[in-house]
Each structure stands twice: as structure tokens, then as C-alpha cells.
What we know:
Elements: H1 9-18, H2 24-27, E1 32-37, H3 42-53, E2 57-62, H4 67-73, E3 83-87, E4 90-94, H5 98-107, E5 113-116, E6 133-140, E7 143-151, E8 154-155
Parallel strand pairs: 1-2, 4-5
Antiparallel strand pairs: 1-3, 3-4, 5-6, 6-7, 7-8
Amino acid sequence: MHEIALPTRRNVLALLAAGLVMPMSARAEAPAMLVHKDPNCGCCGGWVEHLQAEGFVVTVEEAVDLRPIRARLRVPQSLSSCHTAEVSGYVVEGHVPAAAIRRLLEARPTALGLAVPGMPAGSPGMESGTPKPYDVVLFTSDGQRPFMRFVGSKSVI
């Protein structure tokens, strides 16, 4: 019988450094997201680039009128912004930072999704100007509540 040699810590670290193996967290499949956006909106493209840089696999579907999509996904009009996305059974409305989306996907609360109403200065895709604090809102079929607070793409709560 042959004994199986277990890799040493040094060997595993060397393989990681060489890029021949990936840590467990990197092996998890990147979240796939469908983004509905106006073809003429530049800040929406900036938000998509933010998500891609954060490891999301993004498919963009362009539509001039997003109202039917928001109605189908039950996004309250008071929370609407310039783009709407779908990820793992949730809706993401507006310039929601990737960190909030990851937290949503980890916690899996009973909700329709997350929203950042309007277009806050400094939020992902809206980086020009002085960043202002803004809330990411968790919304359900019967209400909404603050989920996280950000300045730019940095969480402050």
C-alpha cells in the first residue's frame, strides 16, 4: 500500500502564489447579474464596471423604458433610479455598492431587494463630485428599512 503524502503548508502557499490553486472563497461561482439600463446612460455603465471589478458576472440588457421591468419586479416608484438589476432572486435598484449586494446574498433576508434612490454623489458610477452619505434601502412587498449606509463605495455602518 502506498501512503498518500499530504501537502505541507509551504507547498500550498507556493501553489497559491503561483496561481495554480485558488483559495476556497475564490472558487465559489461569481454571482451572475442581469442589469436593465438605458443605452444612453453613462453612469449605469460606470456601475456595471464597479460590479465587474468586484467579481460579479454581469449581463446588460438595454431598454429605453424601464417602467415595465420595475413594475414586474415590484420596485416601489419612490425607490426608482436609473437602472434595475436582478441577482439570485433579488432586485437591485440604482447605484447600490457591491459590498451591500454581497451582504444581501450572504444574509438572504426575506425581501424583494435593495435600492439606492436617486443618484447620490460618490456612489458607484457617480464618482465625480464630493461623495455624500447615502442609505441602501432593503425593501419588501409591504415596506422598507435602511440596510447599510455608505459614503462613496465605503460602508460606514
